[in-house]
Hints:
By secondary structure, the protein is an alpha+beta fold. Helices cover 42% and strands 16% of the residues. The protein has helices at residues 15-38, 45-58, 126-144, 152-164; strands spanning 62-63, 75-79, 99-108, 111-120.
Amino acid sequence: MGKTGRDNAITLKSPEEIEVMRQANQIVAGVLSMLEQEMRSGLTTFQLDKWAEEYCRDHGAEPAFKGYRGFPASLCVSINEQVVHGIPSKQTRVREGDIVSVDFGTKYKGFYGDSAMTIPVGSISKRVRQLLLVTEEALGKAIAQVQIGNRVADISRAVQDHVEE
Length: 165
């Protein structure tokens, strides 16, 4: 199905397509790495969004989320138990002990890169540390299911099975 993947099957890409996908996701990784390094108590989620967009544009890409179905920002930011895809705000500040989930996507040469990361701010509780560990393990299970011929449901099942253990 090409770039759209409308049938949800994982399709084999050409070496050229894979390289562009790699480049798109290297930009995303750069954004997330920068945010992880800069994350500290007192920052607004609006500032995080500004930094993410600047980094993306400085690397020749466009933020994928901004304007998509009216989404007003480049970065999705959710703090603690806030539902995913939170909208950055000048009023929302990161605090010591928070876990901050950042989700960023980019459009680069016709392909999209997208990834998320949860960043602990300072000291976090043992319970939160365990949550982060289980989710990281679930990611590994998901990645192991990304194979030619598998479907998105295979990936989802691997995650759900691990988390429910």
